[in-house]
Design brief:
With 77 residues, the chain is of the alpha+beta class. Helix content is 18%, strand content 8%. The chain contains one helix and two strands. A two-stranded antiparallel sheet has the order 1-2. It is elongated.
Length: 77
């Protein structure tokens, strides 16, 4: 795999691992990958969540997630 054409800016080719920021009832953080990020502006650092805990879903997306969790037998809060 070649890196030809990639940016040479400092930090541009670093991998940053971000996990879900949701806190569970016992105070621990969710262990899922935070693949859904949100920031209100470029000046504010991005916060990351897994899809289950992402707070910016549309109503339709939320309903689909609830159906999926119910079908899997998971508890919905």
């Amino acid at each position: 795999m070649s890196i030809e054409g990639h940016s040479s800016a400092p930090g541009a080719n670093e991998i940053v691992e971000h996990y879900c920021e949701h806190r569970l009832a016992d105070g621990t953080r969710c262990k899922e990958w935070g693949g859904w990020g949100h920031s209100p502006s470029p000046a504010v650092p991005t916060r990351w969540w897994c899809w289950e805990h992402f707070p910016h879903k549309t109503l339709e997306q939320e309903q689909a997630l609830r159906r999926k969790l119910e079908a899997a037998g998971k508890i919905i809060h």
